[in-house]
Queue: 3 jobs
Job 1
Amino acid sequence: MIGTDPSFMAGYIAGESDARSTKIMSNIALAFTGQDVVEITRRDLDELYARLNEAEATAANNFRSGRDWRTLAKNLEQDVATLKSRLHEMSSVTRERDALLKFLDIGGHLLHTHRVGKADRPEFAELRDFALDIAYKHLKGEFFEGLGDQPKKLAWFKRLWNALR
């Protein structure tokens, strides 16, 4: 060994030995903890960072998409509430229209009965009073929805109706 100082060589060997000892001690410690030593290249590390950036971009995009869908869902809920309200209003109008049509049907039958000369019969007065009762209820906001759920009253109504034919 030309030009090497023996003390330098001794220090170099001691340092190398110290590094080796440290590595051996680390391996023993890892063995006791159940962990392994992993060596990773710069290329692999760069690839991991690229995947991380891609995952962050995907996560941000998914977050924005989720927020957009949530906003859309809230808008749809508001639209559904508005439509339900309008449908309820239309249902009320339909019920009122149906009640008026039933009343007009009874009124038309009464007019026909009067025109053919049956207005003096007691059934006419009963049916007229029934029609007036429907009209008064309608003025109070109550709708005549028929007699389908009142079989006795329905039979009475049919008897009056048929008697005045």
Job 2
Amino acid sequence: MRTASIYVLLIGVCLSELYSLGVPIKVKVAVFWEAWQKCPIPPSVLQIYFNRIFLSSADNTTRLSTWLCVLFALVRVATLQKISDNRFQMISAPGFGWILIFCSFVCSFVISLSFYFKDEIEELGPWIPQPG
């Protein structure tokens, strides 16, 4: 199964899609958890940053799965065109697929983080519970 870079790229697409599908579940659980508590505590700065990283990772994996599909098609075309040339046999190696996944992930993650960290978090003061 893992003897070609195409299969490694497909594994990357599957993992990124699974992560993308898990994000709405996490958001619904967080909303349910907050509604279930009688006196919910506001999130800490660490929790806010964790949620931002989690949501930017969700955007990242959505973008990443699209680019991995494009890379899948490009690698397949390049492999079929250069099938008899021994210099291009490394394109079909699984290691090349992992390198493509890593480079795509890093580029997409930088774009996602730059979007989510353009805002600043401002602390308003100590939290005081509502009476009642």
Job 3
Amino acid sequence: MAKVVEASSAKVAKAKHEAKAFAQKAEEQVVEIECKSEERLVEARQLAIEAFRAFEDFTWEWASVIEVYKASNELHKEKIAFNQGTYEIGYGAGFDDCQHRVAIQLPKPDLSFLDKDDEDGDVGGGEAFSQKSADVEE
């Protein structure tokens, strides 16, 4: 029986030794994983900082390009073309509407001198203004 106890003790000692070695190996792996995780976190932070700086540089570059474009002749020409088109579209409707409203408010004066069809350059100022003056005096 002493031999059996001795054999069992040897097996237990061997199992303890294997368990300690396994635990030691597991601890080393945990430490290695923690180090790798820390390195990856540092890399991620650096990448985030680089991305933020790149975005900031892009934003400044974008703003400077916009400022250069605002000061360019190309934008000026586009604005003029847009304004001319808007004026041509809006002038007809806006002027006719204004003339119509004035005619409703002041039915007596002759506003025919404001017609766009009169292309001879004469605004007909004499008759219309004298009629207007006469109406105001009455």
